[in-house]
Amino acid sequence: MAHDHTHGFGTKAIHAGQAPDPSTGAIMTPIYQTSTYVQQSPGKIIGEYDYSRAANPTRTAIEANLAALEGAKHGLCYSSGVAATGVVLHTLSAGDNVLLCDDVYGGTNRLFHRVFKQLGVETTLVDMTDLNKLEDAFKDNTRLVWVETPTNPTLKCIDIEGVAKIAHAKGARLAVDNTFATPYLQNPLALGADVVCHSTTKYIGGHSDAIGGALLTNDDELHRELKFIQLSEGAVPGIMECFLLLRSTKTLHIRMERHCANAKRVAGYLSEHGAVEKVIYPGLESHPQHEIAKKQMRDFGGMVTIYLKDGLDKARTMLERVHLFGLAESLGGVESLIEHPAIMTHASVPPEQREQLGISDGLVRLSVGIEDVEDLIEDLDQALA
Ligand code: P1T
Fold it and tell me: pTM for this one?
């Protein structure tokens, strides 16, 4: 069912890429915990597999499953979200330029600016909520545009279709990090992106128990390149991680519905709170790109970002007082998390850049989980009192 275009999302989430094990009837894809496969004679393999860095049946199943969920022909899994990001960057050469949207996960920013810069790949940061700015930023050597939407942590929403048209007219590829939205809420390939990147550590995994990344594409040539780099660099996920993801994607649609409903309630509650200066949530009419979010997302996700009136002091008290919200980096798990981007996830972003983006001392990011929302609101209420 890897190329299933007829079934709905939930059916694909549960069945795509998987079939009961023919030798036992096991309904779950087995954990093929093996590094290698015996051959009948040199070069004559028994099935499709010769070595698990190249491919493994449990990994094949989750790669096909994620491809189906993104409406992609091809899926590849990696050892982390940043590993997947690095693989896309490794399709570039020294002397190439990349346009990177200005607000991205701190680790993504660090990878572009500190690791790939050394290899001669140049990055230009652009506020892509303004397509004129994007158009003006292109250089003769721009080969790739990298978009994250909604962005981490200020939840800007970028018009994927608009960016794709401009990138392609200029002869560049478009990569979209779809981690915050998930394939349930947004499908960048259908909007013109060439490749979608996920940190599967977040909503796709959904249970805060496994690090992973994925790349999905419809482009045969690009897929060959990405797979070649997967084999050659070896940043592949462990077999158990692949199995955990196979189990997780089966409930992605149900979890996302609750994440969205809870986040909407939490955003509404915080908007009314006297200690809160501003709430950023793509589902609020006050969000500057609310119309873009409505156009390209099915719902608005589980992330809520707030500015507190009293800056770091209030943020520190709030973060120390929460009980149900875990004070931790990461997001997208069933349990609610809360964090301080300037000190935690975005500490590696240079201070002047943080200031320009509004990643200030009063900024707090919430990953609203799927607990009972009344309990979450009560927890926030006592933490902000
Ligand atoms: O942590 P890893 O699986 O390597 O994923 C990196 C990554 C990529 N893209 C986005 C949008 C992300 O948010 C992340 C990781 N982010 C966090 C750990 C965080 O707390 O924001």
Answer: 0.97
